[in-house]
Amino acid sequence: MSTHRADSHDLIRVRGARENNLKGVDVDLPKRRLTVFTGVSGSGKSSLVFKTIAAESQRLINETYSAFVQGFMPSLSRPDVDVLEGLTTAILVDQERMGANARSTVGTATDANAMLRVLFSRLGQPHVGGPKAFAFNIPTVRGGGAFTTETARGPKVESAKFSITGGMCPRCEGMGSVTDFDRSALYDESLSVRQGALAVPGYTADGWFVRILCAWKAFDPDTPIRDLPPKQLEALLYGEPAKVKVGGIQHTAMGVITRLQKSVLSKDVESLQSHVRAFVERAVTFRTCPACGGTRLNEGARSSRIAGINIAEACAMQVDELAGWLREVEAPGVAPLVASLQQTLDAFVAIGLGYISLDRASGTLSGGEAQRIKMVGHLGSSLTDVTYVFDEPTVGLHPHDIQRMNALLLQLRDKGNTVLVVEHKPEVVAIADHIVDIGPRAGTGGGEIVYQGDLAGLRASGTLTGRHLNDRASPKPRVRQPKGHLEIRGADLHNLRSVDVDIPLGVLVVLTGVAGSGKSSLVEGSIVGREGVVAIDQTAIKGSRRSSPATYTGLLEPIRKAFAKANGVKPALFSANSEGACPTCNGAGVIYTDLGMMASVSTVCEDCEGRRFHSSVLEYGLGGRNIAEVLDLPVDDALAFFSSGDARIPAARKILQRLADVGLGYVRLGQPLPTLSGGERQRLKLATHMGSDGGIYVLDEPTTGLHLADLRQLLGLLDQLVDAGRTVIVIEHHLAVVAHADWIIDLGPGAGHEGGTVVFEGSPAALAAARSTLTGEHLARYIGS
Fold this sequence. Notes:
The protein is an alpha/beta fold. 32% of the residues lie in helices and 18% in strands. The chain has 29 helices and 27 strands. The longest helix has 18 residues.
């Protein structure tokens, strides 16, 4: 039987890809297979997979909509590539943290909470209403009134009443916590509003918010706040929204606290800008809602039970425990619903997230946890022959859990999908049907295909990845001796079970254990916040879209001054956030289109062509380069540029050397911070803090995003910090780091309720010899013990 012509399209063909640092890349990727892209950090993997293949798939899908619909959508630019053939619909499963909305939980971010609400509305006793009656985001609403209907016999007046039964707790409005405001931090009662009494960010005496309040007429803006009548003070603080006109333009006025609750306190505190976050921490106290006990639900929703459990208690269970409870629920009338919910919960467990509860705020999830939760929705999908794109899906996973992740990736492939994975872990590379190695180096030294084929060929290829694929570490022959201990007694944050542990000082300490065993809880609850402790994690760096490594590290300041001195002009001209900014894009280099119904999209500014500066500023030079060209340099190139000749700047060189030391030599100086991965953000913070006076450094998985060849440099940097007299505490799963430690604290034995205890303390050699824990078993195999 001859092969049908339609079956011949079994490749994704890429020709002449030039996005970012790609150098005219040509590659053929097999469909319905698992392809792993590897190479050093910054070699061009994401440029090929995300910026070229996935981006073009998304652009072509958008073009299938009608011209009318496309008019409401942002225009996506075509990737810089000559030919892209054989594309299928691309679904991105990345490490972007889930929404910072304080109302978002793991349950609401997936289908699990919605299915639970339907289940309780059908089986819960007593019956309190439909699914909305169990939703903490829906308030109970009642109303009524008269309406007129025009009929053949004339107008007919009728009355009607309506009610919506929601599950929202009226006391906390579904937030689970209530806020108390320190009024002394809100205003100076001896001054009037017009005199600048308000100490809230944005409420300056001549600012718009104060002008709107003064036009409101709900209180006297010229009377000192302590002399305002109670009703006027109530309006100033808690007044409901009202329309006012200022300068002929209509605005919405409302009480100061009312506006804070709507615009600031509805977000995750950690997502706020630093000055706003500092104000909130100073002026606002959060405490568990006394009415609902933090469950976010009203009394009616909490009263309805299935087999003795209400929906709040169900959402507070660990997912693996909830899955076990659900198996005991016998309800033939809703059997399909129970089966679907059971499948979703089992997917959580299979993906290594059985320790999470559905009521956990989504903003508290790590990047790796967020990515795995996004996977849950795709595992049960009926879609086939689509392209799934994963960005390091093993981030945050213990070696014990990587095998389960591999099984899930293969499951997606076996359903007839194309799976593209950007990954460094040898365990994932080993299961690939096809491997694409990009390099040979990072930044301008990368952007080429150095190998494509199977695993055996990669090992024999001689590429950087091939040479390091079988790397193994050995415990140090002699470990450092501690210079004291940091005592922790009775640690009980989250799942910790009154942990007592002494952390040795002056050595390299590694905290390890399966995901969810309590490592981060031990650090956050008992170490971070102590005097002399510098915590460097992977959370998003606070700053605007225009922030870059140059601005974050303070590198731009000496560069601006050098440009200004060389050209006899003001330093402000050489800042894209100040006078030198392109007026069209305000120094961003791109135009952002933010639409409520979809993700924001950026397009390169046509006036400055992404260079961010006004054309007149680019006429000034230093060492033969203008400011835009300097900010486009990778750290390694910038280090050479600022080390000699007319452009020699010792202060800049010092900062650049730190960036190179932490493995960020490929990152461009002006690269927007939101484009950095979690590991890159952490290493950027580490470079910035290396000059600080902290005695204890705490790092959260610093190997995230690091190629095998870069591990030696990272371990050398950790040793350098310890040898300088500091204590370094690392939360880590990578066995090379575990083997390199002076002291190991292993938490477990499992995740969630099965974790929270110290199961081993000692040296790496002792852990491998004992094989008493999951980490010990994997470490023994890793070092060949």
